[in-house]
Amino acid sequence: MITCVVHYVIDPAKIADFERFAREWMRLVNAHGGVHHGYFLPAEGASDRAEALFSFDSLAAYERYRERFGVDPEFVAADRIRNESGCVLRWDRTFMRPLLPEVDS
């Protein structure tokens, strides 16, 4: 499993646009082979930072999902929310390998 952690710098005055953008990406990740763990929005502290976490079974599965960017109309429409609203000022992503608690049997 691989988890993508996306770090955002957002415009706090455009949080409603960011939430609309985030809801679309949660839907798209879940519809195209991933598991979205949610967006984490400012509550205390910095008002311009947000995070997203989502996982795919493998880097290859993530790459298949990424092939839709700029091509699939739903992906283009989701990016348009970000681009036209200006709700995201900057973002970067890191790939991590989760260490999860063991389940007792």
From TrEMBL:
Ranges where the NIPSNAP domain occurs: 7-99
InterPro entries: Dimeric_a/b-barrel, NIPSNAP
Domain of life: Bacteria
Pfam family, one: NIPSNAP
Protein name: NIPSNAP family protein
Protein source organism: Actinoplanes sichuanensis
